[in-house]
Amino acid sequence: MSNKASMQMLAHELVQLLWSEVLLLPKDQFSTLVDNHSTLLFEAAELGNVDYLIILIRTYPDLIWRVDEKNRSIFHIAVKLRQENVFNLIYEIGSIKGMIAQYIDADDNTMLHLAGRLAPLERLNIISGAALQMQRELLWFKEIEKIVPPSYKKLVNKGIDGEPADTPWESFTKNHEKLKEQGEKWMKDTANYCMLVAALIATVVFAAAFTVPGGNNQEIGIPIFLKHKWFLVFFISDAIALVSSSTSILIFLSILTSRYAEEDFLESLPRRLLFGLTTLFISIVTMVVAFSATCFLVYYSEMAWLPIVIIVSAGVPVTLFVRLHYQLWADIIRSTYWSRFLFQPNKSRLF
């Protein structure tokens, strides 16, 4: 890792050295060189090489205004290819960003039209799950909406390859139709499986509440172990398991009955899935705690080692659930809550 960092540092120093030599050229030679090799600027934007762009633009700010053969700036390319590190440079150029955001390319595409296209596969696959990929695409579209003039939301582009002209949102809807269907299927499948588990847990803990360990006193009808501390642990954990599993069922049911509009993938559906998984996890943990408390009540006085062994074994499904679903949890949290930091100025200041 250190070797990679040192190689990157040497590459940056080399670029700075070469660029400083280029800046010493006479004005006419410098302009010719920049004009003939401006493609390097756009290739860096395509690859997301923000460090290279910062070195060039910091010493020659006029490169901000450069456009390619289709009249697209580096920010238009960053939007099209979903290079957020390059795009975030736009927040460091002040009021100029409003002027650059007004650029319209040769096909009458605004920056918002480019955000309406589907991201390249290699950038899309950075996010796991079709629903979260749809969420990321919506985040891009909503962010570009804040930058472009309001009138651009209704502008239509040129129809390419015989296709009809579209507004940005029409373009987004059409290009993301398949991804939306995949996201809906992924959400419903996940909700179905999780709701089945939650229903099984709710059934078990509901029955356990009326078949308490040790049974009831036949004369007065109260549980025999009522005053035992482990009975209190059993009853509280069983109640929490019932409430959390029932809540999980309702949350997953709301996912299944959602209308699945594009905007639902932005926050509503991911949050429901996150809360549903959390309540399901709580129900599993409390069900295991209730089971462990029952073991202590019934067997501890006769075989002290047995409940301890059972409790250790009961921790296996909890650990397994965390290991199997941790990545999904992390992806949802990162995509739903940390994504608010996706679009912000770079740490390396441009100017």
- SSE string: HHHHHHHHHHHHHHH
Roughly how much helix do the residues carry, as a percent range? 55-70%
Count the domains: 2
Distance between the termini: 29 Å
Whole-number average pLDDT? Answer: 80
Rg over CA atoms: 29 Å
Any idea what the shape is?
A: elongated
Number of strand elements = 0
Keywords for this structure?
Serine Threonine Protein Phosphatase 5, Tetratricopeptide repeat, 2 domains, mainly alpha, 15 helices, 351 residues
Produce a short descriptive summary.
The chain has 351 residues and is an all-alpha fold. Helices cover 65% and strands 0% of the residues.
Question: Any overview of this molecule?
Answer:
By secondary structure, this protein is mostly helical. It has two domains: 38-175, Alpha Horseshoe (Serine Threonine Protein Phosphatase 5, Tetratricopeptide repeat); 179-340. Helices cover 65% and strands 0% of the residues. The chain has helices at 2-23, 27-36, 39-47, 50-59, 74-81, 84-87, 96-100, 111-115, 121-124, 130-147, 168-175, 177-210, 229-256, 268-299, 305-336. It is elongated, with a radius of gyration of 29 Å. The mean pLDDT is 80.
Blueprint of the fold:
Elements: H1 2-23, H2 27-36, H3 39-47, H4 50-59, H5 74-81, H6 84-87, H7 96-100, H8 111-115, H9 121-124, H10 130-147, H11 168-175, H12 177-210, H13 229-256, H14 268-299, H15 305-336
Helix pairs in contact: 1-4, 3-5, 10-12, 12-13, 12-14, 13-14, 14-15
